[in-house]
Amino acid sequence: MYEVYSFFKSVEKVLFGIYDFFLARCLVRVMKRNLEVFEKLGKEWGVSFKENIEKIRTMREVDKLVTARLNGFETTDNYYRKTSLGKRLMKIKVPSLLFSALDDPVIISEFLPYEDVAANENLILATHPCGGHLAFFTGLSPKQWYQIPIFDYFDALNSL
User: Fold this and answer.
1) Cα-flanking dihedrals φ and ψ of residue 65, to 5°?
2) Is 128 helix (H, G, I), strand (E, B) or coil?
3) What is the 3-state secondary structure (H, E, C) of 5-30?
4) How many angstroms separate the CA atoms of 10 and 4, rounded?
5) How far is it, in rounded angstroms, from Cα 71 to Cα 77?
6) Looking at residue 93, what is its pLDDT?
7) What integer pLDDT is reported at residue 121 of this predicted model?
8) What is the pTM of this model?
9) Which positions ≥6 away from 56 have C-beta within 8 Å?
10) Which of 21, 30, 44, 45 is the most buried (most CB within 10 A)?
């Protein structure tokens, strides 16, 4: 993920927020199955998971209650700022391939870092019209194909 804020803008747009709600509620189910563990963490953080878990409706709320704190961040905004690639793409010194589908419902194409990639000679952003989010299936008996362009990329690097 390039920018965490962009991710949330994407997720909130997909199906009018249904995708965001679905992801959050899936994580809530996991938290409920492990409520004992989360309650122990909550005591350290001064938060009752039992009281707050049913209020969660979005991924931002999951991050506010759990993810930011679990990773040592005091606020969700600080967590997003520190974990986003942002301008760190400019610091990449080794050849790197970024691979994304233009129909990805989570990382939508308008948030891809086209300008940052263009400004760093070590980066290549490869996009494909379809592939969804981490799928890239093809054929009647679907097989994932994302490995093909990745191996082609490494072959090209080796031939330099």
Assistant:
1) -80, -40
2) strand
3) HHHHHHHHHHHHHHHHHHHHHHHHHH
4) 10
5) 13
6) 96
7) 95
8) 0.66
9) 24, 25, 27, 28, 62, 65
10) 21
